[in-house]
Amino acid sequence: SFFYIAINGGSLISTFLTPILREDVSCLGRSDCYPLAFGIPALLMIGALVLFVIGRFLFAYRVVPPQKQNIFITVCKCVYVSFLQ
Where exactly are the transmembrane stretches of this chain (predicted)? Predict the structure, then answer.
């Protein structure tokens, strides 16, 4: 799914990008820039949280009716049929 690709891709990119931002950029009168290295990922996570909160209102919740039979028996039947195939 696209979600997992985005999570793993972002993790891979940040693994290489964070040390570069920390060492090669100077800020606040110092030779290293930890605020930039960790501030950019923090802002991106806040943006992702905002998108998540906004997007959750686009989905409809539905009540799932209770099972008429034991769920364990249903799972056993499913496993049995999968072994037959």
Answer: 38-59
Contacts of 74 (CB under 8 A, 6+ apart): 67
30 forms beta bridges with 27
- Amino acid making up residue 1: S
Residue 6's pLDDT is 81
Domain spans, the chain:
2-84
**Dist. CA 23–CA 1, nearest whole Å:** 34
Both structure tokens of 36: 């930039």
Rounded Cα gap, residues 68 and 80, in angstroms:
20
